[in-house]
Amino acid sequence: MKSGGSALSVRRWWRSARFAWQGVRDTWRAQANFRIEVTCAALVIPVAAWVGAPLAPVLLACALVLSLELINTALEAVVDLASPDIHPLARVAKDAAAASVLLASLGALGVGVVEVLPRLLQHLLG
Ligand SMILES: Nc1ncnc2c1ncn2[C@@H]1O[C@H](COP(=O)(O)OP(=O)(O)OP(=O)(O)O)[C@@H](O)[C@H]1O
């Protein structure tokens, strides 16, 4: 891990952003769940804006789910590297990481049900 150079270096920041974007692309290719979550976010955010729902909780919920899916993918890769064979600790690590995504997804669903769904129904029916 290199952290030298000025904190204000645009070149350093751009280099880090390119690596981060590569992580998003790798996860998009490898993880069907990530593709589903990105699709849900891309649908829900414009709908939330359209019906006048508060955008901050919706954006935060989407960011949380996608971020945890990226971390879950990173952890799976590290576990597969460190423990290609079956090991109880590898199972604990992978299951806990998967549980974090599940919990965030349930929270995001709750935000959608509380903040977006009633306004959407009002727009469509009212
Ligand atoms: N090395 C291992 N040792 C023990 N159990 C493992 C190991 N690798 C995977 N598992 C078990 O199998 C499950 C699925 O693991 P896998 O690596 O296939 O993730 P996945 O199906 O790609 O998960 P996700 O849907 O979150 O991407 C894990 O949650 C864990 O319970």
Automatic annotation (TrEMBL):
GO-annotated molecular function: ATP binding; kinase activity; metal ion binding
Listed cofactors: Mg(2+)
Major localization class: membrane
Protein location: Cell membrane
Gene3D superfamilies, per the entry: 1.10.287.3610
Keywords: ATP-binding, Cell membrane, Kinase, Lipid biosynthesis, Lipid metabolism, Magnesium, Membrane, Metal-binding, Nucleotide-binding, Phospholipid biosynthesis, Phospholipid metabolism, Transferase, Transmembrane, Transmembrane helix
Superkingdom classification of source: Bacteria
GO cellular-component term (any): plasma membrane
Positions contributing to substrate binding: R12, R25, D26, T27, W28, E69
Segments traversing the membrane: 38-66, 96-117
Cofactor: binding details: Mn(2+), Zn(2+), Cd(2+) and Co(2+) support activity to lesser extents.
Active site: E69
One GO term (biological process): phospholipid biosynthetic process
Binding site for ATP: R12, E76, K94, D95
Residues annotated for a divalent metal cation binding in this entry: E76
Protein topology in the membrane: Multi-pass membrane protein
Family from the record: Belongs to the bacterial diacylglycerol kinase family.
UniProt name for this protein: Diacylglycerol kinase
